[in-house]
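If your schedule permits, I should be very grateful for your opinion on a structural question. I have a record of one protein: its chain in single-letter code and its fold written as discrete structure tokens. Would you kindly read the sequence against the tokens and tell me how you understand this chain to fold? Thank you for your consideration; the sequence and its tokens are set out here.


***
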Amino acid sequence: MPGGPAILIKATGKSLGDMASEDTLLIDLEGNLLERDRQARRRSLRPSIEWRFHTAIYRCRPDVGAVVHLHPPHAAAFAALKALPPFLTDEARTFLEGKTALIPPAPSGSRELAGAVVEAFQDPANQAAIIAEHGTITVGPDLYAAFYMSQYLEDASRTACLVRQLRGVSDGRDGRREVRRSAARGRRRRSG
């Protein structure tokens, strides 16, 4: 809710794939459930453990209308490496280069993590981030834009993973796979 004193956030423990509108909660910027969500209290719903960094982004970035936090597999692989993926395609360079931060690891839901996230997103150029050992955060003026940034980041990560797998193999002119020469030389020495 841009410019407002409250945000909608996913309830903890709810799967994004199975979410319904009643799985979102209205909270103030201190993480408190607002009046509208008395029923949520009765259903024992609580805001996402990451509410601190969500609200911190809204506080420091008035241009942000939505925050998306995910754990997509290829970007999570780079998070495990504590690294950003290389931006190998024109699309990745266009949408992510100079707009993506690497956030140091910190415990989930902690003030420390919220502080590190704010530090990264205070730069208005940043639209995406990988949290080391954790997942991704993307922002945008609305939910669609923030989600698309998340897709760009996962696509760039997937492409980088695939390129790393393929680096040792190239297609020959006759369509056969040819192993890099250094590997082929090593086999010849062993067999000869």
